[in-house]
Design a protein that fits this description.
Elements lengths: L8 E4 L3 H12 L8 E4 L3 H11 L2 E3 L2 H6 L3 E4 L6 H8 L8 E4 L6 H8 L4 E5 L9 E7 L5 H12 L2 E5 L4 H11 L1 H19 L3 H22 L3 H7 L6 H11 L2 H23 L2
Parallel strand pairs: 1-2, 1-4, 2-3, 4-5, 5-6, 7-8
Antiparallel strand pairs: 6-7
Helix pairs in contact: 7-12, 8-9
Length: about 280
């Protein structure tokens, strides 16, 4: 039996990631649709989710939060102050708050809600197909049962890692949270290069997608360090060696490292803004 079966979950904000969570939880049979409430200011969006998943819908955030034991904050960070004010004092004192609001620090959420049991999560885009990577942390007020419930929810999205220090979430934002954007750009560049060589875009895309998918699966299965894997396909004086030489010459590693560092600094800055 799932540890969510007797809990009502309310999603405050019902965008793409909230829908991914609803879909993941329901597809794994972790709870029943009537146990889930999707709150969104757009009536049309609520109707869409209600028709698609059979969940309860509302435009009243306070009503949704007051009816739930687990409240998921899944809205844009720009409206955080207004929503926290709206929800303050409405939740079950023994309930759990799980936030995926980008950049919003736990202390801001806990203080704004007047509620101590808060889990903060940094998910990523592949969660939409159950292949996500979520990094999360929790306040001391989050009990063992609630931690297990948070873990159950996040495993419905893919893999999860718990960290003790909230600062790691800024690092995760730069690496795994923003990571799909780097991968998609890399894919785009490879496909464009294939077209430049003379492949049709359809064929170039198939070559690139399967190459990346196969490479990731091979790396997972082999358990070998990535540098050793690279050496396995790099013959002295061969085509891979020539290509890798050009990547190194162009500062591939350095540019990527700088990009991730910039994303990390931006995440910290956004967190500081939310604390003001």
């Amino acid at each position: 039996m799932s540890n969510l079966q007797d809990k009502t979950l309310a999603f405050i904000g019902s965008g793409v990631m909230a829908e991914a969570m609803i879909n993941g939880i329901l597809s794994q049979g972790l709870t029943e649709p009537p146990r889930m409430i999707a709150s969104d200011p757009l009536v049309e969006r609520g109707d869409e989710l209600g028709d698609r998943y059979g969940v309860r819908v509302t435009t009243d955030n306070s009503q949704a939060a007051g009816a739930a034991q687990i409240v998921v904050l899944s809205f844009k960070p720009q409206i955080l102050p207004a929503v926290l004010k709206e929800l303050e004092g409405t939740m079950d004192p023994e309930g759990l708050v799980l936030s995926i609001v980008a950049g919003a620090r736990i202390s801001v959420i806990a203080d704004g809600l007047g509620h101590g049991a808060v889990v903060r999560v940094m998910p990523n885009t592949p969660a939409q197909i159950g292949q996500g990577m979520s990094v999360w942390t929790a306040t001391a007020q989050v009990g063992d049962d609630q931690r297990a419930q948070a873990q159950t929810i996040l495993r419905a999205l893919g893999e999860e890692i718990y960290v003790e220090d909230e600062d790691y979430l800024d690092m995760a934002t730069a690496l795994s949270g923003t990571g799909p954007a780097y991968v998609f750009m890399f894919m785009e560049a490879l496909i464009d290069a294939g077209v430049h060589l003379g492949f049709s875009r359809r064929v170039a895309e198939q070559l690139v997608l399967q190459t990346l998918q196969g490479s990731v699966a091979f790396a997972r299965r082999s358990g070998v360090h990535t540098a050793e894997l690279r050496n396995m396909v790099t013959s002295p004086g061969g085509t891979s060696a020539e290509a890798l030489y050009q990547l190194e010459k162009g500062g591939f590693r350095t540019v990527l490292s700088r990009a991730i560092w910039a994303a990390y600094q931006k995440s910290k800055y956004l967190g500081e803004l939310s604390s003001k």
